[in-house]
Structures are given as C-alpha cells and as structure tokens.
Design a protein that fits this description.
The complex is a heterodimer of chains A (115) and B (112). Chain A contains 3 helices and 6 strands. Chain A has 115 residues and is α+β, with helices and mostly antiparallel strands. In chain A, the strands form 2 sheets. In chain A, strands 2-5-1-6 form a 4-stranded antiparallel sheet, with helices on one face. Chain A has a two-stranded antiparallel sheet with strand order 3-4. In chain A, helix 1 packs antiparallel against helix 2. Chain B has 112 residues and is of the alpha+beta class. Chain B is built from 2 helices and 7 strands. In chain B, strand 3 and strand 4 form a beta hairpin. The radius of gyration of chain B is 15 Å and the shape is elongated. The chains are: A alpha+beta (115), B alpha+beta (112).
Chain lengths: 115, 112
Amino acid sequence: MQLVTAVVKPFALDEVRAALAALGVESTTVAEVAGFGRQRGHTEVYRGADYRLDYVPKVRVEVVVEDAMAEPVVDAVVRAARTGRIGDGKVWVSRLAWAHGPDTVASEDVGGGRR
Amino acid sequence: MKLVTAIIKPFVLEDVKGALEQIGVLGMTVSEVQGYGRQKGHTEVYRGAEYSVDFVPKVRVEVVADDALAEKVVDAVIESARTGKIGDGKVWTTPVESVVRVRTGERGADAI
C-alpha cells in the first residue's frame, strides 16, 4: 500500500477529486493547511484577495492506494492541479507498512484486488 | 527522500520556521491540529487560557527533504521547539518514494 499526499491550491480540489473518482479512488482525506515554497512572500490571489502572507492557504489531499495505483494517482493529481503558475503544489508518495480499513479489508478478502 | 512531520506547540512555530530557513529548507506545510500524549487530560496554558480538555492545540509542520537534510531538519526542530515542559511535541521521519512538482512535473530531488 502507498500513501499519496498532495498539497495543492484550494480551488483545484474539485478537479483533483474528480480525477481521483475517474480512477476509481473514492476514499480521500482532505485538510486545510498553509505553507510556503521557494517563492516565500510571493503574493498569491486567493478568492479575489491578494495574500502577502508567508503562509499561503493550501489543501492537503491524502489517498491510500495499492502499489500499482500510486503512479496513476500521482499523474492524475498532477494533471488536475496544474495551472502552470507558481504555487501549484507538490505530490509525494510514501510506502505504508500496513493499512487497515474498509478498502483494504475488502481487497484482502478477494486476494489483493481493489474493492 | 524523507517526510519530516513535527507536532509542536503553536507558539514555537516562528522559531521552528526560522531554524529551518537557516539550514536551507525552502518550503513547508503547516496545519492546526489537536492531540494529546502521556499527560492525557493534563491542563496546559495556551494563549492565557487554561485547557483541561484532552485535546491540546498543536501545530503540525511537514517538510519533504533529501535524506541528508532530513537529519538536520529533525535536529533543528527539536532544538527550536524545546521548552523543556510537557507537551513540547514529537518529530518523526517517513521514507518518501517519489516527489512531483505539480507545476512542471519535475520529479525527485529537483521537485523539492
């Protein structure tokens, strides 16, 4: 199992969720976060307001998927979240020692396939 | 590459941020979280108000860094977040298999 974590612009969330749904990924965790990257202090427009803060509002999306799904999920998130402008965010993948939940229980019962 | 996650006291965030900038960390993600540790139910003073609730306000800081920098990140967070009192928080490291910068599609160390 892999944990795919994406930190993206808040307004891209709907598109990211749609892209994940198209891949059959329905279980996601979403959190409102804040952060900065190399363009620290760079102003960014969020909901029509100019933010000059160090910490820019972002959304963190977490998805636990089987190994084979990690790459497609990363590609889908990157495509859905890309605007080409600074602050599009990052996506990273971590290997999980184990996961337990509705999805994984079902997949173990049927021998490793996704629910 | 590693993901360093730190759960710290909210008021040390700026100290931690400053310490991370000094060692060359170029970005981080911050979120407001709540939690408890061994002193579950222990009261803690936060912004002048005493909290006797189980869940004490904390800040979660996440930094993706290459392996060498991750060690320094952990040390810098520990030094800058330590008050010596209960509730200083925890820091842990998770291996990261790959990183992608959304804007350009760059992967690996270039994407950090």
